[in-house]
Amino acid sequence: MINVCIVEDEVEQANLLKNYINQYGNEHKEQFVISHLPDGIDLVDDYKGQFDIILLDIQMKHLDGMAAAEKIRKVDSDVIIIFITSTVQYAVQGYAVDALGYVLKPVPYTQFEQLFLKATTRVKAKQQHVYVKISVDDKQLKLDVETVHYIESQRNNVILHCDNQDYVTLGPLKRFEEMLSEHGFSKCHNAYVVNLSYVEAVQKEEVILTSGEVLPISRARKKEFMAALTEDIL
User: Fold this and answer.
1) Rounded alpha-carbon distances, angstroms, from residue 84 to 19, 55, 91, 198, 204
2) Nearest by Cα to 40 from 15, 17, 6, 65
3) How far apart are CA 36 and CA 113, in angstroms?
4) This prediction's pTM
5) From the centroid of its chain, how far is CA 163?
6) Which of 188, 81, 175 is nearest to 132 (CA)?
7) Is the pLDDT at 90 greater than 80, yes or no?
């Protein structure tokens, strides 16, 4: 199932795009959940990374598509954005927000189909990845768990230590342990859940990560952690 949002203030144009998506679904045997929002401000106000593809009109009354895309990119680097526009002049700016492309109004189905095929292909590839949604400073972020090295409990919060940045969000750690235990994560200590892909070695009472960081491993957790690590390697 692919979640698509049409952000378009012209009802007739929005209905056309809905029909195109349904036609595409029938022809390519794909299933879609389609949402419609009339303005960019409606998109960014309560955005939680819930969409796979956004068809975004550039010219809208309250918040134009380009400004909306810039705000979305701050919290979701993965969602696919396709601009719907009446002039190429605006569409070229889409590269700044990593848009997949643009479709000119009036939208011809053949052009829509070509771009939508590329979009759905990317979505299906991304769906092989596992994502975790977290709240950071009143923003909803969607993180690819492959980028998470380990998760640390700190009082009422947890810290997700990722490739290029750390993210602090509300705990408890147990919630993340349960969520990620089937995706290559294991608890080595009451305060740490580790992505086994980043474990370099385990020695005595320490877990050494590929980054060089050293985490404690408790006696109570060591047997279970080593079993999970062996299974992950196999």
Assistant:
1) 15, 7, 8, 42, 59
2) 65
3) 19
4) 0.62
5) 15
6) 175
7) no
Please name which of 169, 135, 117, 145 lies closest in space to residue 49, comparing C-alpha atoms: 135
User: Which two three-digit tokens encode residue 163?
Assistant: 């490739």
> Taking the domains of the chain in order of start, what are their residue ranges?
2-126, 132-233
Q: Which residues contact 48 (CB under 8 A, 6 or more apart)?
A: 133, 140
Chain center to CA of 14: 25
- Provide CB contacts within 8 A for 42, sequence distance 6+: 7
2, 53 contact by CB (below 8 A)? yes
Structure-token match 């605006």, residue found:
90
Percent of the residues in the chain that have a pLDDT greater than 90, as a whole number:
63
* Residue 70 in tokens: 């810039």
- Helix (H) / strand (E) element for 187: namely strand 185-189
Q: What is the dotted CATH code of the domain comprising 132-233?
A: 2.40.50.1020
pLDDT of 85 reads 86
Does domain 2-126 fall into CATH 3.40.50.2300?
A: yes
Retrieve residue 174's tokens.
């147990």
What percent of the chain has a predicted confidence (pLDDT) above 70? 96
Distance, CA of 18 to CA of 36 (rounded, Å): 9
pLDDT for position 95:
67
pLDDT (tens digit per residue) in 54-72: 999 988 888 888 899 999 9
Is residue 208 within 8 A of residue 214, CB to CB? The reply is: yes
* Secondary structure letter of residue 130 according to DSSP: -
Distance CA 96, CA 218 (A): 47
Residue predicted with more confidence, 90 or 233 = 90
